[in-house]
What we know:
Helix content: 25-40%
Number of helices: 7
Order of helices and strands: EEHHHHHEHEHEEEE
Largest sheet: 6 strands, antiparallel
Amino acid sequence: MDPFSSPAFLFGGIPVFNLGGIRKQQRAQKASATKAATKAAGFVFSVEDLAPGAAKCLEAFAWYSDLSLADVKSECAMHGLKMTGAKYKLVDSLVKLASKKPNVKRGEVDPSTLVGAPPKLPAHGADRVRRALVADLRAGLVFDKKLKKGGNKMFKAHYANCSTELFAALFPHAGSKRKCAVEIVRDLHIDRLGKGLRYGGSLEHVAGSLSAQIDDAGTISVGGKYTMM
């Protein structure tokens, strides 16, 4: 065997390995594991996370790039963007939107792309909106050194351009009302709304404090209180 065709060869009797290739492979494996862990955790990023310089822009870009083409098209549609072209071009259009308008909210449509009123997301989008609301509520659990044990802080999540039918699908117990109480198992389909802290303890939502409402513009808001345990 030609020694120079092998991943390692002898130089002066000392084996020399292609360290650059090994490191590249390790980085690829790490990135793949990160994507898998992100999917397993069910974490959902928002378009604003794609803004260059945002704390989670790299993770968000990897997550959006790993979505199916149909899901990326759906996200583009929600923001009034074109839905044609390769997936990487659609993700790029989301990045450009985030760069131009870094505070864009979930479901919000860029007004410069609109012709007429923005479309309302129908009832079949309830699962998508539920996951997004849960992700934003969890992101709102922020440690504050002024928050003492037993004290409370407010947190809230929003999703724009929703229909009243979607609100009813999310919270059927609300009936015809536009506001209702929220229970995490029944309505958000999760067992826990909280997260651990780096040096011990955790931030947890205050049981019975969550409520949801939809305004005339179609923005669903879910919010309540959280505390440090």
